[in-house]
Write a structure and sequence with these properties.
This protein is α+β, with helices and mostly antiparallel strands and 205 residues long. It is 49% helix and 17% strand.
Length: 205
Protein backbone atom coordinates (compact mmCIF):
# COMPACT_ATOMS: atom_id res chain seq x y z
CA UNK A 1 0.00 0.00 0.00
CA UNK A 2 1.30 3.43 -0.93
CA UNK A 3 1.14 6.30 1.54
CA UNK A 4 1.26 10.05 1.12
CA UNK A 5 3.29 12.34 3.36
CA UNK A 6 5.68 15.27 3.55
CA UNK A 7 9.46 15.40 3.91
CA UNK A 8 10.69 16.71 7.26
CA UNK A 9 14.09 17.06 8.90
CA UNK A 10 15.91 16.69 5.58
CA UNK A 11 19.72 16.72 5.92
CA UNK A 12 21.17 17.71 2.54
CA UNK A 13 24.75 16.99 3.62
CA UNK A 14 23.99 13.40 4.63
CA UNK A 15 21.27 12.78 2.04
CA UNK A 16 18.50 11.60 4.31
CA UNK A 17 15.55 12.75 6.40
CA UNK A 18 12.07 11.62 7.39
CA UNK A 19 8.61 11.52 5.90
CA UNK A 20 5.59 12.32 8.05
CA UNK A 21 2.38 10.68 6.75
CA UNK A 22 -0.79 12.68 6.36
CA UNK A 23 -3.24 12.51 9.26
CA UNK A 24 -5.11 9.25 9.07
CA UNK A 25 -2.41 7.64 6.97
CA UNK A 26 -2.21 4.75 9.35
CA UNK A 27 1.55 4.81 9.62
CA UNK A 28 4.36 6.30 11.68
CA UNK A 29 7.08 8.65 10.58
CA UNK A 30 9.54 6.81 8.33
CA UNK A 31 13.20 7.26 7.50
CA UNK A 32 13.89 8.22 3.87
CA UNK A 33 17.23 8.16 2.02
CA UNK A 34 18.09 9.92 -1.22
CA UNK A 35 18.57 6.55 -2.90
CA UNK A 36 14.86 5.77 -2.36
CA UNK A 37 13.90 8.42 -4.95
CA UNK A 38 13.60 7.68 -8.64
CA UNK A 39 16.83 8.15 -10.63
CA UNK A 40 17.04 11.67 -12.04
CA UNK A 41 14.74 13.18 -9.42
CA UNK A 42 15.62 16.59 -8.00
CA UNK A 43 16.99 16.85 -4.48
CA UNK A 44 14.22 16.90 -1.84
CA UNK A 45 13.57 19.73 0.61
CA UNK A 46 11.47 19.98 3.74
CA UNK A 47 7.75 20.17 2.96
CA UNK A 48 7.87 18.21 -0.30
CA UNK A 49 4.76 16.09 -0.83
CA UNK A 50 5.63 12.52 -1.76
CA UNK A 51 4.05 9.12 -2.13
CA UNK A 52 5.92 6.06 -0.93
CA UNK A 53 5.80 2.50 0.29
CA UNK A 54 7.06 1.36 3.68
CA UNK A 55 9.48 -1.42 4.44
CA UNK A 56 11.07 -2.48 7.73
CA UNK A 57 14.80 -2.80 8.29
CA UNK A 58 16.42 -5.56 10.36
CA UNK A 59 15.69 -3.59 13.54
CA UNK A 60 12.02 -3.16 12.72
CA UNK A 61 12.26 0.55 11.83
CA UNK A 62 10.07 2.02 9.09
CA UNK A 63 11.85 3.06 5.89
CA UNK A 64 10.26 4.86 2.95
CA UNK A 65 11.00 3.15 -0.37
CA UNK A 66 9.99 3.64 -4.00
CA UNK A 67 9.54 7.36 -3.34
CA UNK A 68 7.92 9.66 -5.90
CA UNK A 69 7.04 13.34 -5.76
CA UNK A 70 3.37 14.25 -6.00
CA UNK A 71 2.36 14.03 -9.65
CA UNK A 72 5.63 12.41 -10.72
CA UNK A 73 5.14 9.68 -13.29
CA UNK A 74 6.46 6.21 -12.70
CA UNK A 75 9.67 5.86 -14.63
CA UNK A 76 11.14 2.65 -15.89
CA UNK A 77 14.25 1.95 -13.91
CA UNK A 78 17.04 1.46 -16.36
CA UNK A 79 19.65 -1.05 -15.40
CA UNK A 80 22.67 1.09 -14.75
CA UNK A 81 25.87 0.14 -13.03
CA UNK A 82 27.48 2.51 -10.55
CA UNK A 83 30.79 4.06 -11.49
CA UNK A 84 33.60 1.57 -10.72
CA UNK A 85 35.48 4.06 -8.55
CA UNK A 86 37.60 1.43 -6.84
CA UNK A 87 38.68 -0.08 -10.16
CA UNK A 88 39.53 3.33 -11.64
CA UNK A 89 41.70 4.24 -8.66
CA UNK A 90 43.52 0.91 -8.55
CA UNK A 91 44.08 0.74 -12.33
CA UNK A 92 45.45 4.27 -12.41
CA UNK A 93 48.01 3.48 -9.71
CA UNK A 94 48.94 0.18 -11.38
CA UNK A 95 49.40 1.98 -14.70
CA UNK A 96 51.72 4.40 -12.90
CA UNK A 97 53.77 1.54 -11.46
CA UNK A 98 54.17 -0.04 -14.90
CA UNK A 99 55.07 3.38 -16.29
CA UNK A 100 57.91 3.60 -13.77
CA UNK A 101 59.11 0.07 -14.54
CA UNK A 102 59.27 0.80 -18.27
CA UNK A 103 60.81 4.22 -17.81
CA UNK A 104 57.88 6.32 -19.01
CA UNK A 105 57.07 7.91 -15.65
CA UNK A 106 59.57 9.18 -13.05
CA UNK A 107 59.50 7.41 -9.70
CA UNK A 108 58.69 10.63 -7.82
CA UNK A 109 55.33 10.86 -9.59
CA UNK A 110 53.99 7.43 -8.64
CA UNK A 111 55.47 7.71 -5.13
CA UNK A 112 53.56 10.96 -4.66
CA UNK A 113 50.34 9.43 -5.95
CA UNK A 114 50.61 6.43 -3.64
CA UNK A 115 51.40 8.47 -0.52
CA UNK A 116 48.72 11.08 -1.19
CA UNK A 117 46.17 8.39 -2.08
CA UNK A 118 46.80 6.71 1.26
CA UNK A 119 46.35 10.06 3.02
CA UNK A 120 43.16 10.82 1.10
CA UNK A 121 41.73 7.35 1.82
CA UNK A 122 42.33 7.83 5.54
CA UNK A 123 40.79 11.33 5.49
CA UNK A 124 37.61 10.09 3.79
CA UNK A 125 37.40 7.20 6.25
CA UNK A 126 37.72 9.54 9.23
CA UNK A 127 35.20 11.98 7.77
CA UNK A 128 32.69 9.19 7.17
CA UNK A 129 33.05 7.99 10.76
CA UNK A 130 32.68 11.56 12.04
CA UNK A 131 29.51 12.03 9.98
CA UNK A 132 27.95 8.95 11.53
CA UNK A 133 28.80 10.04 15.07
CA UNK A 134 27.92 13.72 14.67
CA UNK A 135 31.52 14.76 15.34
CA UNK A 136 33.56 17.53 13.74
CA UNK A 137 33.90 16.95 9.99
CA UNK A 138 36.86 17.34 7.67
CA UNK A 139 36.28 20.47 5.54
CA UNK A 140 35.47 19.65 1.93
CA UNK A 141 38.09 22.16 0.82
CA UNK A 142 40.74 20.07 2.60
CA UNK A 143 39.59 16.89 0.87
CA UNK A 144 39.63 18.66 -2.49
CA UNK A 145 43.10 20.08 -1.85
CA UNK A 146 44.64 16.67 -1.12
CA UNK A 147 42.81 15.18 -4.13
CA UNK A 148 44.14 17.96 -6.39
CA UNK A 149 47.69 17.29 -5.20
CA UNK A 150 47.36 13.64 -6.29
CA UNK A 151 45.25 11.85 -3.70
CA UNK A 152 42.24 11.40 -5.97
CA UNK A 153 42.86 7.69 -6.78
CA UNK A 154 42.66 6.93 -3.06
CA UNK A 155 39.63 9.21 -2.79
CA UNK A 156 37.84 7.18 -5.46
CA UNK A 157 38.55 3.97 -3.58
CA UNK A 158 37.30 5.48 -0.31
CA UNK A 159 34.17 6.93 -1.92
CA UNK A 160 33.14 3.47 -3.11
CA UNK A 161 34.34 1.60 -0.03
CA UNK A 162 32.56 3.86 2.47
CA UNK A 163 29.78 5.11 0.17
CA UNK A 164 30.84 8.61 1.09
CA UNK A 165 30.42 11.86 -0.89
CA UNK A 166 29.03 10.00 -3.90
CA UNK A 167 25.49 11.44 -3.96
CA UNK A 168 26.33 15.08 -3.29
CA UNK A 169 26.39 16.62 -6.76
CA UNK A 170 28.21 19.80 -5.78
CA UNK A 171 31.04 17.83 -4.15
CA UNK A 172 31.41 15.47 -7.10
CA UNK A 173 31.51 18.37 -9.57
CA UNK A 174 34.43 19.99 -7.76
CA UNK A 175 36.09 16.60 -7.21
CA UNK A 176 36.29 15.82 -10.93
CA UNK A 177 37.66 19.30 -11.59
CA UNK A 178 40.47 18.56 -9.12
CA UNK A 179 41.15 15.28 -10.94
CA UNK A 180 41.45 17.12 -14.25
CA UNK A 181 43.71 19.79 -12.76
CA UNK A 182 45.96 17.14 -11.24
CA UNK A 183 46.29 15.14 -14.46
CA UNK A 184 47.13 18.26 -16.48
CA UNK A 185 49.71 19.30 -13.88
CA UNK A 186 51.24 15.81 -13.83
CA UNK A 187 51.57 15.74 -17.61
CA UNK A 188 53.34 19.12 -17.46
CA UNK A 189 55.73 17.91 -14.74
CA UNK A 190 56.67 14.87 -16.83
CA UNK A 191 57.04 16.68 -20.15
CA UNK A 192 58.97 19.60 -18.66
CA UNK A 193 61.48 17.29 -17.01
CA UNK A 194 60.72 18.65 -13.54
CA UNK A 195 59.52 15.27 -12.30
CA UNK A 196 62.67 13.56 -13.60
CA UNK A 197 64.86 16.12 -11.87
CA UNK A 198 62.95 15.59 -8.60
CA UNK A 199 63.38 11.83 -8.86
CA UNK A 200 67.12 12.26 -9.45
CA UNK A 201 67.37 14.50 -6.42
CA UNK A 202 65.47 12.03 -4.24
CA UNK A 203 67.28 8.90 -5.37
CA UNK A 204 70.65 10.53 -5.94
CA UNK A 205 71.09 8.99 -9.38
Amino acid sequence: MRLVGRISGWNEEKGYGFVTPHAGGGSVRAFVHIKAFQPGSRRPVDGDLISYSVSKDDRGRANAVDVRYAGQKIEQRKSSRPMPRLAIGVLFLLAGVFGVLFGFIPFAIIAGYVLLSCLSYIMYSVDKAAAGKGMQRTPESTLHFVDALGGWPGALMAQQRFRHKTVKTSFQSVFWVTVLINIVATIWLIRSGAARSLTTALLGS
